[in-house]
TrEMBL record:
Matches recorded under Pfam families: SusD-like_3 (PF14322), SusD_RagB (PF07980)
Keywords attached to this entry: Cell outer membrane, Membrane, Signal
Cell location: Cell outer membrane
Name the record gives this protein: RagB/SusD family nutrient uptake outer membrane protein
Length: 488
């Protein structure tokens, strides 16, 4: 952790010469500048913009995966919807086979903490700008703070679902005296901090920037509500989850795009659709081209897609078909959801209206609202032209069967969006891991035959459901302790 923060600090600051420690101004894309930079509201906006830019690519000169690539890998690689392509790496194969060690570089969390540090810097320095810029209003400050709090919360939500307990850093590292050796904070305590931060963000966030593109590509009040709903669902706080979903639904600002041929182009390629709540606006090199598309791609769609998830219509498959799979992957299982060219500007959908519908449906199913939950699933299926082959007749009072049906529909709706593993884990861990069978079935389907029994045995231990702390973090921070499963 210490090494991450220090290297981030060095990369985000320029020095006049080896004999001078005065901070120099940075380009706005870097997001972090010397303290003297924080003089005007335009400086604050530039820093906030840097937080968003960090979601798309590492800083120049940093040999690391993009944050988007980590989000995809963490949310998909241990699940059942992708498998190895021609150039899958040994480390990635080890993740699939539940053969994970602390020297696996996929367990590096630096990209997330870089963005967290950018957000912390905005939170620490932005309030002081009011003293030097009389035109910087409280409303503007509160809006920027809301954006930084929400992005930081999103980063921690990914980290805690991937590693469970992680260091919680709430102040900026901008000089060497800010460096700390931090221990891990319990997942439950980080979740409490996220709720606190998002409740504050909700008060300051705007409902609109007066621009559709900004409303979809920057944090709004509805982004906060969506993330809160997702967090509450993970925490099994279903009443509050439903409340947050209802705030979005009742706003009447969002709706499902129809089942016409333009659905994919409207939502993913053009972006800023009525269905989108928050998207990452790709305006740079497409990180998914090498990952999913070119001839040396590392991942392809799983063969289970056509036999278990997108089952063809059993009566007239040529004329009656779900609109989703043809936009997601082709007959060779090449994943084309993020475009087939580089550069590509297909948007990464963090939250869509359909996500809120399915989050609410899941919460309703677990609180006696099975009838309404089924209605939400049916509404989504109707707009996606889902076929009868994937329809299940479910008694609304049968909670487990209804949750399985919702989980299956989430697989169809959010294929390759970095959500599948987290969905599986959330369902499996509920009620003290009463559905551990979900993860055991995944291991039996996806792990190499010679390693299946070992993987199933490992998955019976909940500690194995989280990645190890990367070994270099343990070397540089003596207060960090390796996650339990990886100390054996």
């Amino acid at each position: 952790m210490k090494n991450i923060l220090y290297s981030t600090c060095l990369l985000m600051m320029l020095v006049m010469s080896s004999s001078c420690n005065k901070w120099l101004d940075l380009q706005p894309r870097d997001g972090i500048t010397r303290q003297e930079f924080w003089k005007t509201k335009e400086d604050v906006l530039a820093a906030v913009s840097g937080c968003y830019t960090s979601l798309l690519a590492p800083p120049p000169g940093i040999g690391d995966k993009s944050l988007l690539e980590y989000m995809f890998i963490y949310g998909e690689l241990r699940a059942d919807m992708i498998t190895g392509g021609p150039s899958i790496t040994t480390e990635e194969t080890d993740i699939i086979n539940v053969n994970i060690t602390q020297d696996n570089t996929i367990a590096r969390w630096a990209a997330f903490y870089r963005t967290i540090n950018y957000c912390n810097t905005v939170l620490d320095f932005a309030p002081g700008v009011k003293a030097t810029d009389p035109t910087f209003t409280d409303a503007a400050l509160n809006g920027y703070v809301a954006e930084a709090l929400t992005l930081r919360s999103l980063m921690y939500f990914y980290l805690l679902r991937t590693f469970r307990d992680v260091p919680l850093k709430l102040t900026a590292t901008v000089k060497d005296t800010d460096l700390q050796d931090l221990p891990k904070t319990k997942q439950a305590d980080i979740l409490k901090q996220i709720i606190t931060d998002l409740k504050k963000a909700e008060q300051g966030a705007v409902t609109t920037y007066g621009s559709t593109r900004f409303d979809k590509g920057r944090v709004t009040k509805f982004t906060v509500n969506a993330l809160l709903a997702d967090v509450y669902l993970w925490m099994e706080d279903y009443p509050n989850c439903i409340t947050e979903c209802n705030k979005i639904i009742s706003s009447q600002r969002f709706a499902l795009v129809g089942a016409g041929s333009g659905w994919y182009n409207n939502v993913f390629f053009r972006g800023s659709s009525i269905e989108t709540i928050f998207e990452f606006d790709q305006a740079i090199e497409n990180p998914f081209y090498n990952l999913l598309v070119n001839t040396r791609r590392r991942f392809i769609g799983s063969p289970f897609l056509s036999t278990e998830i997108f089952i063809p219509d059993d009566v007239d498959p040529d004329n009656n078909y779900d609109i989703r799979p043809d936009s997601y992957y082709n007959s060779a299982f090449t994943i084309q959801k993020y475009g087939t060219e580089n550069p590509s500007y297909v948007k990464w959908q963090a939250y869509r209206y359909s996500d809120i519908m399915m989050i609410k449906a899941e919460a309703l199913a677990l609180t006696g609202g099975g009838v309404e939950a089924l209605a939400l699933v049916d509404e989504l299926r109707l707009r996606r032209n889902a076929v009868n082959a994937t329809k299940v007749t479910v008694d609304p009072s049968e909670t487990e069967a209804l949750c399985d049906y919702i989980l299956a529909e989430r697989a169809r709706e959010f294929a390759f969006e970095g959500k599948r593993w987290f969905d599986l884990l959330r369902h499996a861990k509920r009620n003290n891991y009463s559905r551990i069978d979900i993860l055991l079935d995944i291991a039996a389907k996806t792990v190499s035959p010679t390693l299946q029994q070992s993987a199933i045995t490992k998955f019976r231990d909940p500690n194995s459901h989280y990645l190890p702390i990367y070994q270099s973090e343990l070397f540089t921070d003596p207060n960090l302790v390796q996650n339990p499963f990886y100390t054996k």
